[in-house]
Structure formats: C-alpha cells, structure tokens
Amino acid sequence: MQRLKDHPHRFMILWLCLGIFLVLSMVVVGGLTRLTHSGLSMTEWSFAGSFPPVNEEGWNAEFGKYKQSPEYIELHSHFTLSEFKGIYWWEYIHRMLGRFIGVVFMIPFLLFLVLKRVPKGILPSLLLILALGTVQALLGWFMVKSGLVDVPRVSHYRLAAHLTTAFITCTVIFWVVFKVFDHGVVPRRLAMKPLPVVLIVLLLIQIVYGAFVAGMRAGLIHNTWPLMDGALVGDMVTAMDPLYQNFLENRSGVQFVHRTLGLIVAILAIYAGWKAVSTGNTHQKLSGKWLIGMVVVQFLLGVFTLLMAVPIVLGVLHQVVALLLLLAVVAYYYFQRFEFTPASETSRSGA
Length: 351
Prior knowledge:
By secondary structure, the chain is mainly alpha-helical.
C-alpha cells in the first residue's frame, strides 16, 4: 500500500478518517445521552438547530416545555431547574454534534467536487454517505418523537434503526477510505468465502439486538453469566404468546438472543481471525489480529456490563467497541475479497 503522505488523494482520506472519528464521537455522546436518560429533555426539533438558553427566562421557558412531556409527568415531576439543565445539555450536545458532522461532510465534499478531486468511481459512495447522514438525522427525531407522546420512553425499534444507521454510515465511510487509498492499483478479486459474509450479517443482527436491549433496558435484569439466573434459558424468556414475540417485545427474550448471539459471533470471529493470521497474506494477518482483539474486548465488556447492571462507563464502551468490531469485520472482509498488485507491476508483467 502507498504511504499516506505520498498519496495523491491524502486530503480526501484524512477527511474521511475525520468523519469516522466524528461518528465514533457521536456514538459516545449518544450512549451518554441514553444512559443518563437525557434524550427526551428537548421537546422541539429544528433542522437548522438552535441556541441554548442564555438566561433564566430562557431556561424556564425550556423547562416549561419539558413539563408538558410524558417523561416529566410520569417520571421526573420532582425535577428542579438545575436537574433539568443536567439532562438538557447532553441532548443539546448530541444534536449539535450531529449538525456539525453534517457541515464537516458537506463543505469539503462540495470543494472536492468543484476542484474535480473526487477519484473516478468514488462519487456514488460519497453521495451514499451524505444520504445516510440525512436519514440518520431524520431517524433521530423520529426516535425521540416516540417518547414525547403518551409513553415516556423511545421505541426500541426506532432506537435500533437510529443506531444501526450510524454504524452502517461509519462502515461505508471506512470502506470508501480503503477504496480511495487503493485507487490506482489493480485488485485481484479473490473467491468469495461464506465466513466473512456470515460474520457481517450476524454482527449486524447482534448490533440491532444490542439496541433492543438498550431501548428496553433489558440489561438491568438477569445480571448473571453464563447462566440466566441459574438456568441456560431463563424462565421468562418464552413467557409471551406467540413465541416469536418474546424475541421482539419481551425483555428476557431479547436479552437471551443478545447474549447467545454474542457468544456465537465471538467464536466465529476468533476462528476467522485465527485462520487469517495462520494462512493469510500480510494484510489478512493484520486484519485477523485486529478482529480477534476487538471481539475478545467486546465480549468481555458485554459480560461485565451485564454483571454490573450497565454502569454508564461500561455501557458507553460496549457501544463504541461494537462499532470498532464492525470496522474490524469489514477490514477482514475487504482483505479476504481483494488482493492488490501495483499497476506498475501489472504493466511490467504483461510487457
């Protein structure tokens, strides 16, 4: 691979890497917003954004709006203005960071476009990133809206859509970084193997169920491992009828899927990483090591987060490392799918 400082598209690569960092930061702030129960503190949404209150009158006006929400009426009627400010700021930072990310993507994108510095074939991927970012913003409000009517909590389905879209957006950016970095070299497409694809699909399902667990606060029950309160399958896992509803609406059933699928993903990822390290080329070995490291850390984080009933620090770390693990799986897939030979070598060999 070419060194970054000598790469003709290094500024685009740095821009995309900044995007990955910002999405990771958004995942951190989003996790803190959720775990501090701050997500419903702002009851209005403006695409253009807004300034926070700057005086006591403004704060009282915002607090007055919050007092009309189901969350205040049912859960936080004891809140003082000072306590309200504590949850308001997390949600405000979360929203403003989202808008900042939009600006960071849009302005350089337009500059690259005007200056004709977009590599051939990359434009559709950049447009996809922008589209995903827009969808992510709309899903954020769609999620919050579900907690402002009748029930003071967001739909776990909408939370899953919001979080999974963020993860997919970051994954697409990461993929484009590889494509831009390798622009100008000739890839040899390797035979498709089922394991990388299976691993990506299972991990995405696991991420969705992680969001279900978060949205339903299912991590606050069955805080034992490897057994669920002394049983392989907890008594409440199949309490609902019909059976499938347990794995969508039942907290015990959702946690059972998440903890069981987590073990399956860990075993498959370690096996895949070991094979890459044992038999792969240089890039495959590196991706295999990253894959093993990330899945071991994530699995241990998941176990300790459950055992300790989701402390804020571990909850946020578990969410962030889930994204890093997804990127590791994508890197593993990329180097299992493509092998690169510099274009100059290809020309010489055919001469």
